[in-house]
Amino acid sequence: MSQTIMMIGPTAVPERVLNAMVRPSISHRTPEYCAIQKELTDGMQAIFNTKNDVYMVTATSTGAMEATLQNLFSPGDEVVIPVTGTFSEQFATMADAFGMNTKRVRYELGEAADVDRVMSEVTPDTKGVFIVHNESATGVMHDLEAFGAALKDHNALFISDSVSAAGGIPTKMDDWGLDVLLTGSQKALMSPAGVSFISLSDKAWEQSISSTLPKYYFDLQQIRQFDELNQTPHTSAVYTVFAMQEAMRMIMEEGLDNVYRRHVDVHNKLLAGVKELGFSMFPKDEKRYSLTVNAIRAEGRAKQIVSELGKRGVVINGGLGALADTIIRVGTMGYVYEADVDRFLKALAEIA
Ligand SMILES: *Cc1c(COP(=O)(O)O)cnc(C)c1O
C-alpha cells in the first residue's frame, strides 16, 4: 500500500531525495563534500533571509538549541521564555539545566504568546527572549515580526526555534531583528534527521564572548572556524547532507515563493476540508493557526483516528502529553501537495 505521510516530523522524504543517498560514501574533508556543504549553507541563508552566515551542526535541532544556550549565556543569566506547549517548555527545561534564571510566561494550551505579557517580564537584565516560531505541540504560529519590533531597543537577544517553519513559512531573520534562528533537516526541508542549521547576529557573537558555560561538541567558535572551510569539526552526517543537497535543489527549482504559496494553499484546503467534516481547530485564535502543523480537536478519539488513518495508509500524529487523546496533528510541510490532503480527507471522512 502506498503511504501518504503527513507527520510533524520526520516528514515525507521525496523519492529524488531518497535516491540521492544511493551512492558511494565520500570523506567529509574532500572538495566534493565541501562544495555540497557550501550549497546548503548558501541555500539556508536564502531561506533565513539573512546576511549572517548560517552554520551546519551535526545534530538534530535540539543540539542547535543546546548550542545556543551553551555559547551565548552563563549560569544565572535571566532568560524569558513564553511556554505554549512541549517544545517551548523543552527550551525552558534546557535553560534550567544550564543553571539559568528561567522566567516562564505560561499560556494555556492552544493559546499563542502575546507581545504585551512577554514584554512585561523583560527587564534591563534579561539576556535572552526565546520564541518558538511554531509551537508544534499545539499548532500555534507566533508573529515573530511583532516580537522583533517590541524587542528592538532591548539588550536581550531575540532567539527563535523555527524547526517546523523554516522552508515552509517565510522567515526573515534580519528584517525581524532575530539574533539567533535555527532549524533542522527533517521538517519542511524534507530530508532525514541528523543535521541542523543555526545563524547568529553580530550582537549574539558579542554576547558569546562573555559566556562562561563549558562547551565542546557544540562550541560555535570552532563550528564557525570549520565553516570557513565548508566543513564540520567532526564527522559530518554525510548521507543526510547528500539528501539535503537534493532537497535544497528541489526547493530552489520550485522557487521559494512558490514553495511558500503551496504551503498556504495546502493548509487552506485541509482547513476547509476538516471543517466540512465537522471538526474544529485546536488553537484558540484563527489568526495564529500554523500553516505547517495543523492541530485538530478530536476529544477522546484522537488515538483511534490516528490508528484508523494508519490502516488506510495515511500517517499523521496524535497529541503530545496531556493532549494525547485530545487532538490529532497533521503536517502540511515539505513534500505535501493537494492530492495528499485529498487522501487524508477521504480517509478521515470514512471513519469520522
Ligand atoms: C520537531 C521540533 C523540534 C525537535 O527537534 P529534534 O529534531 O527532535 O531535535 C524542536 N522544536 C520544534 C518546534 C519542533 O517542531
**Largest sheet report:** 7 strands, mixed
Instruction: Tell me the overall shape.
Output: globular
- What is the alpha-carbon Rg in Å? 20 Å
For the largest beta sheet, what order do the strands appear in spatially? 2-10-9-8-5-3-4
Count of alpha and pi helical runs: 12
What class, by secondary structure content? alpha/beta
Q: What is the number of beta strands?
A: 14
The overall average pLDDT, rounded, is: 98
Task: Spell out the helices and strands N to C.
Answer: EHHEHEHEHEEEHEEEHHHHEHEEEH
Question: Approximately what portion of the residues adopt beta-strand conformation?
Answer: 15-25%
Q: Which range best describes the helical content: under 10%, 10-25%, 25-40%, 40-55%, 55-70% or over 70%? A: 25-40%
**What are the bound molecules?**
pyridoxal-5'-phosphate
Low confidence ranges: none
- First-last Cα distance: 22 Å
Layout of secondary structure:
Blueprint (H helix, E strand, L loop, with lengths): L3 E2 L9 H5 L11 H18 L5 E4 L3 H12 L5 E6 L2 H12 L3 E6 L8 H7 L4 E7 L1 E2 L4 E2 L2 H8 L5 E5 L18 E5 L11 E5 L1 H7 L11 H8 L10 H17 L1 H21 L16 E5 L4 H10 L2 E2 L1 E2 L8 E5 L6 H14 L1
Parallel strand pairs: 1-12, 3-4, 3-5, 5-8, 8-9
Antiparallel strand pairs: 2-10, 6-7, 9-10, 11-14, 13-14
Helix pairs in contact: 2-9, 9-10, 10-12
